[in-house]
Amino acid sequence: MPNTIYFVIMNIPLNQTEKDLLRKIVPHAQLLMMLDSNELQTLIPQIIEQIRATPKLYEQEQKGMKALVYLHYFFNQSDWYVSELNLEEDLAFGYVCLNGDHEMAEIGYFSISELVSIAVINIDLHWTYQTLEQAIQQSNHP
Questions:
Q1: Taking 50 as the threshold, does the pLDDT of residue 7 lie above it?
Q2: Helices 16-25 + 40-53 axis angle, to 10
Q3: Which domain holds residue 7?
Q4: How do residues 64-92 score in pLDDT, each as one tens digit?
Q5: Which residue in 64, 59, 126, 62 sits closest to 95, CA to CA?
Q6: Chain-wide mean pLDDT for the chain?
Q7: % of the chain beyond a pLDDT of 90
Q8: Three-state SS for 91?
Q9: CB 82 within 8 A of CB 71
Q10: Does residue 6 carry a pLDDT above 60?
Q11: DSSP H helical segments within the chain, as ranges?
Q12: How many other CB atoms are there within 10 angstroms of residue 48's CB atom?
C-alpha cells in the first residue's frame, strides 16, 4: 500500500516536502479515504502545519506535563499523543494508552512509520493543541 499512497499523493498540488510529510505522518489507509473527501483542501494544509509545529525530540523535556501535544492518533480505546517528533530517526515522543488500559499506559518513544502502517489507526484531523496533562486526563475520562 505505501507505493499506492505515494503515487496518489504525487497528484496533490503540494511541494515535494509537503507530500513527504503527509506520507510519513498520515496513516496510509486514512490518507486514501481523505483523497475522496471534500475536506481535503482544508485538512491537508492543517495537518502539514501541525507536523511542522511539532517540536523536535527533547525540545519540551523541561516542560514535563505542561508540554504541548501536537498530534493525536487513535483506534477504539487506544490513543497515541505526540508531543515531540524526529522524522529522520522515525521517532515520536508522547503518551500511549492501549486498549483503554490506563494503569499500563506509558510516556515514551514510538515509531511513527510503524504506527501509520497499521490500517485501522487514524490521525485526529480535528485535534487542537493541549498539554500532555490535559491529553492524559481526556484519555482517562472518555
A1: no
A2: 80
A3: 2-140
A4: 999 999 999 999 999 999 999 999 999 99
A5: 64
A6: 85
A7: 56
A8: strand
A9: yes
A10: no
A11: 2-10, 16-25, 28-34, 40-53, 112-116, 132-140
A12: 19
DSSP state of 55: P
Q: Do 114 and 87 contact (CB within 8 A), yes or no?
A: no
Q: Among the listed ranges 14-28, 107-121, 123-137, which one has the minimum average pLDDT value? A: 14-28
Could you tell me the CA-to-CA distances from 51 to 12, 24, 32, 46, 105 in Å, in that order?
18, 10, 19, 9, 24
User: 14 pLDDT exceeds 80?
Assistant: no
Residues in contact with 127: Cβ distance below 8 Å, sequence separation at least 6, in sequence order:
50, 69, 70, 71, 72
What's the predicted TM-score (pTM) here?
A: 0.85
- Residue 16 to residue 25: CA distance in whole angstroms: 14
Choose among 37, 53, 2, 42: nearest CA to 23: 2
Nine cell digits for residue 14: 503540494
For 67, the grid coordinates are 508540554
Non-local (6+) Cβ contacts of 91 within 8 A are 57, 85, 109, 110, 111, 112
Q: Into how many domains does the chain fold?
A: 1
